[in-house]
Structures are given as structure tokens and as C-alpha cells.
Design a protein that fits this description.
The complex is a heterodimer of chains A (about 350) and B (about 375). Helix content of chain A is about 25%, strand content about 20%. Chain A contains 9 helices and 13 strands. In chain A, strands 8-10-7-11-9-12-13 form a 7-stranded mixed beta sheet. In chain A, strands 1-6-4-5 form a 4-stranded mixed beta sheet. A two-stranded antiparallel ribbon of chain A has the order 2-3. In chain A, a hairpin with a 2-residue loop joins strand 2 and strand 3. In chain A, helix 3 runs parallel beside helix 4. The longest helix of chain A is centred in the middle third of the chain and has 18 residues. In chain A, about 45% of the residues are buried. The model of chain A has no long low-confidence stretch (mean pLDDT about 90). Chain B has 16 helices and 11 strands. In chain B, strand 8, helix 12 and strand 9 form a beta-alpha-beta unit. Chain B is globular, with a radius of gyration of 21 Å. The N and C termini of chain B lie far apart (about 45 Å). Classes of the chains: A alpha+beta (about 350), B alpha/beta (about 375).
Chain lengths: ~350, ~375
């Protein structure tokens, strides 16, 4: 058992400042906690609302509706090619807000730190979060930190909540898909999931695959002029494109038809999936969006997406059909049909 | 990807489909033996494209599907032990045993890890000398050389905290058992290319001659499978019954000698239970006595475990082609992909799961047409 740090004991002359790892005392509410905030969080997350250090931050909003989204990040490993848990926690939540057509106003961040986490790693995570938030132009206005004993967590877990102002003229929603809609994807799929797999301990294959983790808000902004003709936006994270399409098919009560060869899978991702017996359709993305748009606007939407670097490889992958309601069907390259269902659990590598 | 793209070429595939359709004078019933081939057939919808010309029966060549319940229960019993790291190929984790599956054992505190190679499991044993590392050695002749190698290496390196739970099966006795069944409908086989890459195909020659069935050693890509079908259909139309090799880029008649030699050194033939089918004489591999120290069944004393399979599951009849999955009374009711009774409902390309998805699709189509 680790001895709990008594806040009273913190006043003794032990050189606690010399620590290079997270200690239980960092969550005690005493000096170490204050140091953690002042030395590690505030310098990165600097903004007026946060600088007040009140019990809550006050944020000005326009009148109207708010979009609120929360997400908790437990990715292992904490750092991976193309990002870390910090940048991911900002992108993930901002993307969820963006998929509602809302413009993000602010973020909050809650941290669960494991005793023993090197502070240099924490600094890298915080720096990546700050830089992702800064790039998106969205302040992190409230935060919280808890420390748990070694072994009770996996380095660091982060919860972020995002608030956004809804746009009355641009309201994509999962239930708005209609027969005839064109289904677009903004870029190559399955990169995040495969980058994580490659980086994960025990899988000894080397690859140059990087996560696609990115803030999709600017890409969503390119579609904003199309207004209500953009019916659904979704960022296909866990469960990949296949799961996102299934959720939309069910929410809208429509059939979804996708074309096998149309799905953009980078060749190294494809090769890794082949090797590991995984289907890229079910592999996570963190910087790709799926858009359902009125057929008449399909070309305009593609042009808009391609005007932004994140959408340079945007392409049409299928259509919404009146037949086979609530089912996603894939037309194989040979003209056969395959039902693309939700997976019962995790995707498991196949033996044969 | 070289040697892959050309075997997925849609123009060649379409030509082959047209050729098969033009060649048949009646509908022929073929069985693809291997789960990897079933995977391609289901994913590409090949059986749908050949409807009326060739009926494909998905054979018992999915190691996940045929691993008997008692071996799964042994795995669960070993994996639940406190000092054990239990390692397995990924898709075994969801196969239901009598009570639960490996994922549930993990949730209850068992240390269950997915590995991609038995040699990774051996490396894990070297890193954790304080633990017993067990690898679930399932599969056909394809995985046997690597599994044999892990045991052989463990002995070479003196790693004593490594063992394997063996559930190896071999293809030729299964083909024979299917052909011996009085209600057999299979008229030709696509043999599993990878199995033959290891073992060669001399074992199949007497089977083809005795039962008068064409056996085509076939690869796994759409063009491979269609070519294999076309070769089988040709033989059937001409009244021939030979072993032919479609998968020439990987398979030689005598296989890969060093791999066969290693398998023979570590394993010996034994009777083996097949899930849903029952015991097939001399259809499996077990560790030779000199490698007994690496046999998890002996190490953990689970060898005596006997289990009866659920009565409601007709996986055996499905895997031998006697019934189609929807003809099983449990299909879609007692047994669904979320709560599978038998293994063919577990894997996404298992015969039952494939039919389940297709049935859902067709039901929604006809409901649409009726409304």
C-alpha cells in the first residue's frame, strides 16, 4: 500500500517539488495539487475564463440552442503515431459537436491520473490538448484532476465536454437521411484504429501508419453553405464506418447501400488489415466524416469538402435506398451483396 | 499488392462466372473446405452470383467452428486459474463453452491475451517466468507447423512455464467422413490451399479415386475460388474425378517438407472430437509423449473433462451440408449472433451467421415490397 499524503505533512521541508512523477498528493487538494494546476495545466490552457480559478467558469453565449457532447478517452497507448490522448480528447469531442452543425464555444476537461505517471508525459499530453484546442479556436474553460493509486488506472484518462451554438440553418441529424441521398466520406478510412493496433504492445509489426486524429469543424464549415441539404453528418469513430452507417440506417429507417471499391482505404492500412484479419469498415477513425446529402447537392458537397486539406480525398461511397430499411448492404465489386451488420462486440482477428 | 490484386480482378472474375454458367448442364453441389474460402464467398456474394449453376456448401474447415465444446471448456477452466496467462488467436475468444466464453473469463479476472503467433506466446512465457503461459493450439494442418515450432523451441530454450492446449484437426479424415455419410450431397471439393501448402495433396488422391469426386486444391481470393469451381465443374461435366491444383503459386504435390517433418516430430495422429460432428478416427493431432511436459491438458489435469453438446444446435448437420442453417429449429430464435449456441453462428463468416444476416436483408426487402 502506498502511504496517502497527508496535506498537513506537506508543510514539512521535504523537497516535494523535485518529483518527476504524479503522486497521490497531486490529487490531495494541497500544495502539490496547486502546483500541478499552476505549473502543468494553466501555462498551456491559458484563457481568461480559466484564469479566474473560480468554482465554475462563466462563458458568454448567443441566445438559442446549445449542442452538448461529452466523451471519455482511455486510449492505450497514451501516445501513438499521429497524436496522443490529449489531442484525441479535444478532437473527439469537438468533432461530435461539429457533427450537429454546431459551432463549438468551449470545452471542459476532467483528468484521472494514475500515481506514477511521468510528469513529462503528462506535459506532452497537456501540450497536445492545448495546441489542438488553440488550433480549433476553442478555449478549455473548466477542468478537474483526480489521482488514483498505481494500478487503478492506465496512466491517464481524460473526459472532455464540448458546448456549441446550434446553427438554425444547418442542422444535420442522424434521423434525417432520406432515400436518394448521396453518402460521402471525407477521406481515407481506418487509419486511427490501425495506428493504435500497430503501436500496441505485443503486435510486432512495424508500420508507418499514423492516426488521422483531427478537428473536423473546418471541414464541416465548408458544407455549411449547403444548409438543410446536408441531412446527416457523423464521425465514424469506434466501430468504424460500418457501425456509423448502421446507426444512421436505423435512426432514419432507411436502407443504406455502399459500393465495395468506392471505399478509400490507404494501401498500408489495407495491407495491415489483411495481415491481421480485420475489416477496415469496422476500424475506428478520428479525422473522417460521413455525410448524407441530398442527391442534387452531391457534387457541390464533394467540391466543398475537397476545398479543405482534410477533405482532399473526399469521395462518394454509396446511396440511401428505399429498399431494405434499417439494413446496410455492400455491393461487392462483382455485383454480389453482403449485409454489413453491427458487430456483436469487438472485432476479433480471424484465424483463417 | 502483388499476387493479390490480380486475384481480385473483377473482369477475370466475371469471365469465370460466365464460363461456369455456360458450362453446366445441371446444378452441381460443391463444398469449400476452408473457413477462409467461406469468408471470400460470403464477402463477395459468389454463391448468389452462381445461383442455379453451383450450390456451395460451407464445409467444416473453420477451426473455430469445429473445436469441440470440451476443448473450449478446458480452455475456460485453465484460463480462469490465477497464475495463468492464457493466449489464443482472436476469434476463439467469443466461442461459447458450456457456461461462458474466454471474454467473460477475462472480465471475471482471468488473464486472456490475443496473440498472432504461438511464438509470441512463447516470448510472453520468457518475459513472465513467474506465470504459466498457455497457448490454445487450434487449427488445421496450416497452423500445426508454427504450433509445433513453439513447443520445439520451448524445449530447446528450456522454457518450462509454457504449454499448449492442443485441438488440432486434419482435413482428409473430415472429407472422408462427409463422403461416407449416407445422405451426402457433396459432388466435389475445393480443398484448402494453405493446408496443402504444408501437407501437399497426395493424401487426397486415393479419396478422389475411391469416392469418385473431383478435389481441387484452391486458393482464397475470388479469382482463385471461381477458378477452382470452374475446374471442379469441368471434371463433373466430363465425368472425371481427379485431384487438381489451382493454387500452383503456393502448393507443390508433396507440400513443404521441413514443415511436415517438424509437425511429425512434435505431434502424432489421434482420434479427435469435432464440434457438431462427433469423433472422427485419427482426424486430429496430439503431442507426442516426449513433449508431454508442454501439454496443458496434462499440466493442469483437465484431460478427463467430458461435455455433451447442446441438443438444439444442429451445427454438425450444417457443417456436413445435410441441412441449411435456416432448417435448424434454433436458427434465429435460440441461436443468434449475439447469443450463439454453436460456432457457425459465432464468426461473421460462419455459415449460420452469414445466413442470419442474409435472411434479415431478404425479410426487409420483402416487407418493403409488401407495404
Amino acid at each position: 500500500m502506498k502511504k496517502k499524503v497527508n496535506p498537513v505533512a506537506l508543510s514539512c521541508p521535504v523537497p516535494l517539488e523535485a518529483t518527476d512523477r504524479v503522486q497521490l498528493g497531486h490529487g490531495s487538494g494541497g500544495k502539490l495539487s496547486a502546483q500541478l494546476v499552476s505549473r502543468h495545466f494553466l501555462p498551456y490552457f491559458e484563457n481568461a475564463a480559466l484564469a479566474q480559478l473560480g468554482d465554475a467558469s462563466v462563458v458568454a453565449i448567443e441566445s438559442g440552442e446549445l449542442a452538448v457532447s461529452t466523451d471519455t478517452f482511455v486510449v492505450h497507448p497514451i501516445e501513438f503515431p499521429g497524436g496522443n490522448i490529449g489531442s484525441l480528447s479535444v478532437h473527439g469531442t469537438l468533432n461530435d459537436v461539429a457533427m450537429m452543425g454546431a459551432r463549438a464555444v468551449c470545452l471542459t476537461a476532467g483528468f484521472v491520473l494514475e500515481e506514477g505517471l511521468p510528469l513529462v508525459v503528462l506535459d506532452r499530453v497537456i501540450a497536445a490538448m492545448a495546441s489542438a484546442a488553440h488550433e480549433a479556436g476553442v478555449p478549455i474553460v473548466a477542468g478537474d484532476t483526480k489521482v488514483v493509486e498505481r494500478g487503478k488506472a492506465d496512466g491517464v484518462y481524460i473526459n472532455t465536454t464540448g458546448l456549441g451554438a446550434m446553427d438554425a440553418g444547418f442542422r444535420p441529424a442522424p434521423a434525417r437521411a432520406q432515400a436518394g441521398d448521396a453518402i460521402l466520406v471525407s477521406g481515407p478510412i481506418a487509419r486511427h484504429g490501425m495506428a493504435i493496433m500497430a503501436a500496441r504492445e505485443g503486435l510486432s509489426f512495424e508500420s508507418a501508419i499514423t492516426s488521422d486524429s483531427a478537428c473536423l469543424a473546418p471541414l464541416v464549415d465548408t458544407l455549411r453553405p449547403l444548409g438543410m441539404d446536408v441531412h446527416v453528418l457523423r464521425d465514424p469513430t469506434r466501430g468504424g464506418v460500418a457501425s456509423a452507417l448502421n446507426e444512421i440506417a436505423v435512426a432514419s429507417g432507411v436502407g443504406v447501400e455502399i459500393i465495395d471499391g468506392a471505399l478509400p482505404v490507404p494501401s498500408d492500412v489495407h495491407a495491415a488489415c489483411e495481415l491481421l484479419g480485420l475489416d477496415p469498415l469496422y476500424v475506428a477513425n478520428e479525422g473522417v466524416l460521413v455525410a448524407f446529402v441530398a442527391a442534387s447537392q452531391a457534387e457541390a458537397a464533394l467540391r466543398a469538402l475537397r476545398s479543405h486539406p482534410l477533405g482532399a480525398e473526399a469521395t462518394r461511397i454509396g446511396n440511401v435506398v428505399a429498399a431494405h430499411a434499417r439494413i446496410v448492404a455492400l455491393r461487392t465489386a462483382l455485383g454480389g451483396t453482403r449485409v454489413v451488420d453491427l458487430l456483436p462486440g469487438d472485432q476479433l482477428p480471424r484465424i483463417c | 499488392m502483388k499476387y493479390l490484386a490480380e486475384y481480385r480482378d473483377t473482369d477475370i472474375a466475371r469471365t469465370l462466372i460466365a464460363r461456369i454458367k455456360a458450362r453446366v448442364t445441371r446444378r452441381w453441389t460443391l463444398m469449400e473446405v476452408c473457413g477462409g474460402q467461406t469468408h471470400t464467398i460470403v464477402r463477395q456474394g459468389l454463391d448468389e452470383l452462381l445461383e442455379g449453376a453451383v450450390e456451395m456448401i460451407h464445409g467444416p474447415g473453420c477451426p473455430v467452428c469445429v473445436t469441440p465444446l470440451e476443448q473450449i471448456d478446458k480452455a475456460l477452466a485453465i484460463a480462469a486459474r490465477p497464475n495463468v496467462i492464457f493466449t489464443s488467436f482472436g476469434d476463439m475468444l467469443r466461442v461459447p463453452g458450456s457456461e461462458c466464453d474466454l471474454q467473460q473469463v477475462r472480465a471475471r479476472g482471468g488473464d486472456v491475451k490475443v496473440v498472432y503467433s504461438p511464438l509470441d506466446a512463447l516470448a510472453l512465457a520468457q518475459r513472465h517466468p513467474e506465470k504459466e503461459v498457455v497457448f490454445f493450439a487450434v487449427g488445421f494442418e496450416t497452423t500445426a507447423p508454427a504450433n509445433a515450432m513453439s513447443v520445439w523451441r520451448a524445449r530447446e530454450l528450456g522454457v518450462s512455464n509454457f504449454s499448449v492446449l492442443v485441438s488440432h484437426v486434419t482435413v482428409p479424415p473430415a472429407i472422408t467422413a462427409i463422403l461416407e455419410a449416407p445422405d451426402n450431397r457433396v459432388q466435389g471439393f475445393l480443398a484448402a490451399g494453405h493446408v496443402c501448402a504444408v501437407m501437399g495433396y497426395t493424401e487426397y488422391e486415393p479419396i478422389a479415386a475411391k469416392y469418385k469426386v473431383p478435389i481441387i486444391v484452391t486458393g482464397f481470393e475470388p479469382v482463385d475460388i471461381l477458378e477452382g469451381m470452374a475446374m471442379a465443374v469441368n471434371q463433373l461435366e466430363e465425368g472425371r474425378h481427379e485431384v487438381e491444383n489451382q493454387y500452383v503459386r503456393s502448393v507443390r504435390r508433396t507440400g513443404t517438407e521441413p514443415a511436415r517433418a517438424l509437425v511429425a516430430q512434435v505431434f502424432e495422429l489421434a482420434n479427435r472430437q469435432w464440434r457438431g460432428i462427433g469423433e472422427i478416427p485419427m482426424s486430429g493431432l496430439r503431442l507426442r509423449d516426449e513433449f508431454a511436459a508442454y501439454d496443458a491438458e496434462r499440466k493442469f489435469g483437465v484431460g478427463g473433462l467430458k461435455v455433451t453438446e447442446p441438443e438444439a444446435c444442429k451445427a454438425g448437420a450444417v457443417l456436413t451440408g445435410r441441412i441449411k442453417p435456416p432448417q435448424c429449429p434454433a436458427f434465429g430464435t435460440l441461436c443468434t449472433p449475439e447469443r450463439p449456441l454453436g460456432a457457425p453462428m459465432v464468426s461473421t463468416e460462419g455459415a449460420c451467421s452469414a445466413y442470419y444476416n442474409l435472411a434479415k436483408y431478404r425479410t426487409s426487402e420483402s416487407a418493403e415490397a409488401a407495404s
